[in-house]
Design a protein that fits this description.
The chain is an alpha/beta fold and 401 residues long. The protein has helices at 16-24, 37-44, 55-65, 97-106, 126-137, 159-165, 175-185, 198-229, 233-240, 263-270, 276-307, 331-341, 364-370, and strands spanning 7-10, 30-33, 68-71, 79-82, 88-89, 93-94, 115-118, 146-149, 168-172, 193-197, 312-316, 345-349, 373-376, 393-396. The protein folds into 2 domains: 7-191, 3-Layer(aba) Sandwich (Rossmann fold); 230-396, NAD(P)-binding Rossmann-like Domain (Rossmann fold), CATH 3.40.50.
């Protein structure tokens, strides 16, 4: 693609919007498509609806330059990227309804020679299924539409840098599709672009997050063992990591987010007999969250017995990881909502949320003053400067203290 292709981005969420803005910053015309009118209106004002460092300035710039505009309907383009959610349903079965809906939405606008790239995390074989869907509805395009899978691998809070600099695995349904996709990503990615096939690229994304989940499960399991043994898990891990070939991660409240907490189930769903370690890691990390709830409830009960009243509990952090506003699959949010549902007096603290999303939020300093028990569920940097004092009862699940 010697010319600058016109691009349609299906989905303007935590991945779609930063990707669309980055592509637009290279001078390409990008049409962002989202089903939510308020998202479309916000972006067309040059503003953003999510929290991500440096994204607001970039979106403002590319919108006012005329390189990015948002709408609810796709239009004819050279390249289509699909970056919509892929949650699971029922017994952790992948839900491809968003991917299917996005694909069906672009089908009427497709022309010969168009390139369709799926970035949404998907079970192995999804790219082939979407190709079959296109050919079923537009048989005249059979063999004339290129398709590829290219998973993102970014860290929330550093998305723009990583979208540009991280290596990418790019897998087409055939060699020509792979090369077309690589040529497109060269417009805005400076990391290495590694060619493969679609099924391998799909599995790569799932395995990357399953590997992380396994490592976190080991740390979380150690934290529960050390608690029972009366050992400071943070000191123990720090000392174990002095070994030149050991690198144990930090334990936490559990595992959240739309990737690590979800993607391993895509493997388990397709390969239930073979994925024993992957399943067990998911179970350990989910159990850690339930364990955290029990620790808080036991602390609250001890307080009630001693002081003859219910304690006020400050739940510090609702996001799924530090210094972001993303609540998807958040173990901290689950802990907080469980305590509220069971009748505990809870102060919800999440400084990264622009609004409460229907929740009554408390400022961190106010929560520390009002609470009897302070529970660190997420390691936000801002929490480290809080003056708590020795008289407050504290529970620290993320190594803040």
């Amino acid at each position: 693609m010697a010319h600058k292709p016109k691009v349609v981005m299906m989905g303007l969420g935590y991945i779609g919007l930063p990707t669309a803005a980055l592509i637009a910053s290279r001078g390409l015309e990008v049409i962002g498509v989202d089903i939510h009118q308020h998202v479309v209106d916000t972006i067309n004002r040059g503003q953003i609806h999510i929290v991500e460092p440096d994204l607001d300035g970039l979106v403002h710039h590319v919108v006012h330059k005329g390189h990015l505009r948002a709408t609810t309907q796709p239009e004819e383009a050279d390249v289509y990227l699909i970056a919509v959610p892929t949650p699971f349903k029922g017994d952790h079965v992948p839900d491809l309804s968003f991917v299917t809906a996005a694909t069906e939405k672009i089908i009427p606008t497709l022309k010969k020679g168009a390139l369709v790239i799926l970035e949404s995390t998907s079970p192995v074989g999804t790219t082939e299924k979407m190709r079959a869907l296109i050919h079923e509805q537009r048989p005249e395009l059979n063999g004339d539409v290129y398709m590829a899978y290219c998973p993102e691998r970014v860290l929330p809070g550093n998305v723009l840098h990583e979208l540009k600099h991280n290596d990418r695995a790019i897998g087409g349904i055939d060699e020509q599709s792979t090369q077309k996709a690589i040529a497109f990503y060269k417009h805005f990615v400076v990391g290495d672009l590694h060619p493969t096939n679609a099924k391998t690229a799909e599995m790569v994304k799932l395995v990357e997050n399953a590997s992380r989940d396994n490592q976190i499960a080991f740390a979380n399991e150690l934290s529960m063992i050390c608690d029972k043994a009366g050992i400071d898990v943070w000191e123990m891990i720090a000392l174990a990591n002095k070994h030149p070939r050991v690198n144990i991660l930090r334990p936490g409240t559990g595992v959240g987010g739309h990737c690590i907490a979800v993607d391993p189930w895509f493997i388990v769903s397709e390969f239930p007999e073979e994925s024993k370690i992957i399943r067990k890691s998911r179970e350990v990390n989910n159990f850690k969250t339930e364990w955290v709830i029990e620790k808080i409830k036991n602390k609250a009960l001890a307080f009630k017995i001693e002081h003859k009243r219910e304690p006020v509990i400050a739940c510090m952090g609702l996001a799924f990881k530090p210094d972001i506003d993303d609540l998807r699959e958040s173990p901290a949010l689950y802990v907080t909502e469980t305590l509220i549902e069971e009748g505990h007096q809870v102060l919800q603290v999440e400084p990264n949320l622009q609004n409460g999303h229907g929740r009554e939020l408390t400022e961190p300093t106010d929560a520390v003053k009002k609470a009897d028990i302070i529970v660190f569920l997420v390691g936000h940097k801002g929490f480290r400067s809080l003056q708590i004092g020795d008289k407050k009862q504290k529970l620290d699940f993320v190594g803040m203290l």
